[in-house]
Amino acid sequence: MKQITQTGTTVENAISAALEKLQATREQVTVNVIQNEKKGFLGFGSKPAEVEVIVNEPEAAPLEKEEAVMETAVAEPEEILEELVEAAPKATNERAIQETKDYIQSIAKGMMIEDLKITHKQSGKQVSFYLESEKVAMLIGKRGNTLNSLQQLAQLVANKYSNQFMMVELDAENYRERRQETLEQLADRMADKAIRTGGRVQFEPMPSYERKVIHQALSRRMDIDTYSEGKDPNRYLVIEPLK
């Protein structure tokens, strides 16, 4: 991303100077006014205008858009899949699993991951897919955000082709198990904090299954209460000490 901070006698002069340096037009940039010009009094206290000018990124290619969708919450996954998946001529669980693997592979290739290996294990309606790659951290993302979003899309693909409802779980390098241990430890620390301070303690927003892990981890404690507030994807968990 190209950007520049520029000063000038006026805001417009500063913008013009920045555009000349960036070799860009006004329509190609975003301007943030850091400071308006100040004339001062009798020449004292005057300050130049200062602006930040950022060259807008070109519209993302389809694969870049798809990666961006996975990095954040998926707002309309059904509509996305209408463009990504054709209607299956014959719905079977075997086809659903293969189509899901193919879909995950296509996402990985779009992220320049060429060595992805996918295995699966099925138990009734539950199908777990395990991902292996030298770049698997890219598929996990920060705090599992990419993996969670990919899992949501993978479940929709699976159910597009299956003849019964399927629950899909994606895991990579035992991330789910490690994340559960981290959440359980965090739950105990936050519960102790609530008791120590005598006030409510609020977690950051997290997916429903992670909130469930914390609820279950603290269900044995009789000195606190846990509940969720807000709306997805910003729903969060609260701990309150019992009076």
TrEMBL record:
It is found in: Cytoplasm. Signal peptide: none annotated. Its main location: cytoplasm. Residues 177-243 form the R3H domain. Keywords: Cell shape, Cell wall biogenesis/degradation, Chaperone, Cytoplasm, RNA-binding. It holds the Pfam family KH_KhpA-B. InterPro entries: Jag_KH, Jag_N_dom_sf, KH_dom-like_a/b, KhpB, KhpB_N, R3H_dom, R3H_dom_sf, R3H_KhpB. The keyword Chaperone applies. SUPFAM superfamilies: R3H domain. Belongs to the KhpB RNA-binding protein family. A probable RNA chaperone. Forms a complex with KhpA which binds to cellular RNA and controls its expression. Plays a role in peptidoglycan (PG) homeostasis and cell length regulation. Has an N-terminal Jag-N domain and 2 RNA-binding domains (KH and R3H). Forms a complex with KhpA. This is RNA-binding protein KhpB. The gene is jag.
